[in-house]
Amino acid sequence: MAFPATRPQIDYEDDVLLLDEEQELRTLVVYNDDVNTFDHVIQTLIDVCNHEPEQAEQCTLLIHYKGKCAVKNGTFEELEPRCSAIHDRGISADIV
Fold this sequence. Notes:
- GO terms for molecular function: peptidase activity.
- Pfam families: ClpS (PF02617).
- InterPro entries: ClpS_core (IPR003769), Ribosomal_bL12_C/ClpS-like (IPR014719).
- Keywords: Hydrolase, Protease.
- By secondary structure, the chain is an alpha+beta fold.
- It has a single domain (about 25-95), classed as CATH 3.30.1390.10.
- Helix content is about 40%, strand content about 15%.
- It has helices at about 40-50, 55-65, 75-90; strands at about 25-30, 70-75, 95.
- Helix 1 packs across helix 2 (about 55-65).
- The N and C termini lie far apart (about 80 Å).
């Protein structure tokens, strides 16, 4: 008597561990000072933060009248080089 060829049953784990790394969003804040001109701060925001001229001007007015302005949101890794570039231009900024 011939037995039919059978395949061994293999149980596979279908559970997959997904790494859902949640990165905390931070804010890049620029502060007012008595040294830098409006034009310098506006140009810096255009160059470093990719702001449109109107957006950069509005942020600069807020910096001047309110003492600070949140100019960009993102992860620390995204904001850190921008913050350094702003510092390099003599403007005070922090990531909060």
